Amino acid sequence: MSPLIEFRGVTKSFGGPPVLDGIDLTVEAGEVFAVIGHSGAGKSTLVRLVNALEKVTSGSVLVDGVDLTTLSERGLREVRLGIGMVFQQFNLLRSRTVFGNIAYPLRVAGWAKADRERRVTELLHFVGLADKAWQYPDQLSGGQKQRVGIARALATNPRVLLADEATSALDPETTAEVLRLLKRVNTEFGVTIVVITHEMEVVREIADRVAVLESGRVVEHGTLHEVFTAPRERTTKRFVETVLRARPDADGLAQLRERHPGTLVTAQVRDGSRVGAVLSDAGRHGVRFEVVHGGVKELGAASFGSLTLELVGADAGVVAVVAGLRAVTEVEELG
Amino acid sequence: MATDWNTLWPVLLDSVGQTLWMVAATLVVGGFLGLLLGIALYITRAGGIVPNRVVHTVLNVVVNIVRPIPFIIFITAIGPVTIAVVGTQLGTGAATFALIAAATFGISRIVEQNLVTIDPGVIEAARAMGASPWRIVTTLLVPEALGPLILGYTFVFVAVVDMSAVAGAIGGGGLGDFAIVYGYQRFDWAVTGVAVAIIVVLVQVAQFTGNRLARRVLRRG
């Protein structure tokens, strides 16, 4: 893999304090790279630097080895032909049909009429909207609009697809459908995708690597697995917890304790951590257990999560079970 | 004194013809120039497609100076320019020139206001596709704002009919002049009434057509 997009010491300000501050990031060709952050963290600005809809204040952005800061407006338009973009509000042309919307970038790129028609038809089938070709955007549902947006972004066979909160205006079911489509774009066409989102669930579904943006800085980045299983920063931990209810918060713990007088422990669950095996042996120590909180999700190819357990039995037995858990995974005693 | 319709009838027909000519010429020529000026105002504004503070300020000030001048004053004040362009400052041609000039500035504002309603996200999407400002102006702006623009131009039609009634002040004729000379000044309410009725019908037809067109365009978009 080779870097397709590079941020080198990028700073961006709109006159006031910097919106982005000292960004160094590399996106490899063929990967799905997610940037997660709360609103105002600067992620929409960050993604707009890749197709130069915004210009850096200092530093440089390289796409396919070309430093965008050295290009004229005309040169940037050439680069933009090779970068598709999908938007939260879809941004379809209301005056054009689905067909017309997908054909628009092909007109911009100067494709001949016959080629345009062939390509649009191909894309309509890919996104499953062949029967909607002559409808107008206002006649479509949100999920259909975003599929048109994706088809339009892919029209000119770009190497890079930028998805700016592409699923944030959609309901969970439609979100999953659009994410599956994006994943297909990545695997079937080898398109590198940069996903901007504030939802960790989106990152979990689709990303290979992820960067966490906070107040214009990258506070943490790594592979999906690294960031989910060993988050270092508080912001990252919070994001991870939105997907995996890692351990009960203070209120939740107080409520659990009222109903569960036994010993409460939170055990991390990973592939091969054999938490289940330890628990099935608990009976031999005269200990009963109950799962009271938590969740396990798949993360790429691996499973990951945590379970909070109530252990009831003689002190010695409980200590033995906790020791058994400690031998296979990380355990936190909640008392 | 009974109204002598035998003599008045040809005059009335002439007046209707003059009004229709003045309004049509103003809408076509002034409508086009106003569209260009309105687009120029819109794209040069801060955050626009080709922001240019100097050009925008100049255009803005000129439009603001011309637009509030009452047309009865404008049509006489523009006299020297009318003579330079049309060759005379009297007659239907001269009145039409003044109408076009005034309408251009008025229409430019209506065009600008309608273009402002275009979702900036759509323009951003076009830029992200590599579209040049020229392409955005020619293929995106007018189609995206077409519905509101049609309603805007319908409004302008009514305003131009209203303005054209003043043409009589410089011998431009038209229905307004007819109503004043043969109706008001002769205390002949029947003549005034007929002139008014024709103008009302004209405006109704225009408004009805404009509404229908706009609805058709808006329904798909």
Automatic annotation (TrEMBL), chain A:
> Which PANTHER family does the record associate with it?
AMINO ACID IMPORT ATP-BINDING PROTEIN, METHIONINE IMPORT ATP-BINDING PROTEIN METN
UniProt GO BP:
amino acid transport
Under the heading SMART domains, the entry gives: AAA, NIL
Domain of life where this protein originates: Bacteria
Q: Where is the ABC transporter domain?
A: 5-240
Q: Tell me which InterPro entries the record gives.
A: AAA+_ATPase, ABC_transporter-like_ATP-bd, ABC_transporter-like_CS, ACT-like_dom_sf, MetN_ABC, MetN_ABC_transporter-like, NIL_domain, P-loop_NTPase
Q: Which positions make up the signal peptide?
A: none
Cite the source lineage.
Bacteria, Bacillati, Actinomycetota, Actinomycetes, Pseudonocardiales
How is this protein organized at the quaternary level? Homodimer. Forms a membrane-associated complex with FtsX.
Q: Does the keyword Metal-binding apply?
A: no
**UniProt entry keywords in alphabetical sequence:** Amino-acid transport, ATP-binding, Cell membrane, Membrane, Nucleotide-binding, Translocase, Transport
User: Which family does the similarity line name?
Assistant: Belongs to the ABC transporter superfamily.
Named from the GO MF annotations, one term is: ATP hydrolysis activity
Source organism: Actinokineospora spheciospongiae
Q: Name one GO cellular component term.
A: plasma membrane
Q: What function does the entry list? A: Part of the ABC transporter FtsEX involved in cellular division. Has ATPase activity.
Name of the protein in its database record: Methionine ABC transporter ATP-binding protein
TrEMBL record, chain B:
Q: Which GO terms describe its biological process?
A: D-methionine transmembrane transport
InterPro entries the UniProt entry points to: AA_ABC_Transporter_Permease, MetI-like, MetI-like_sf
Lineage: superkingdom: Bacteria
Report TM segments: 20-44, 65-86, 92-111, 150-170, 190-210
GO CC terms, sorted:
plasma membrane
Is Protein biosynthesis among this UniProt entry's keywords? no
Instruction: Cite the entry's keywords alphabetically.
Output: Cell membrane, Membrane, Transmembrane, Transmembrane helix, Transport
Q: Which residues does the UniProt record annotate as the domain ABC transmembrane type-1?
A: 16-210
Q: Which Pfam families match?
A: BPD_transp_1
Would the keyword Signal turn up in this protein's UniProt record? no
The membrane topology of this protein is: Multi-pass membrane protein
What is the annotated localization of this protein? Cell membrane
The record, for PANTHER family, names: ABC TRANSPORTER PERMEASE, TRANSPORTER, PERMEASE PROTEIN, PUTATIVE-RELATED
Which family is it part of? Answer: Belongs to the binding-protein-dependent transport system permease family.
Q: What is the official name of this protein in its record?
A: Methionine ABC transporter permease protein
Q: Which organism is it from?
A: Actinokineospora spheciospongiae
The beginning of the lineage is: Bacteria, Bacillati, Actinomycetota, Actinomycetes, Pseudonocardiales
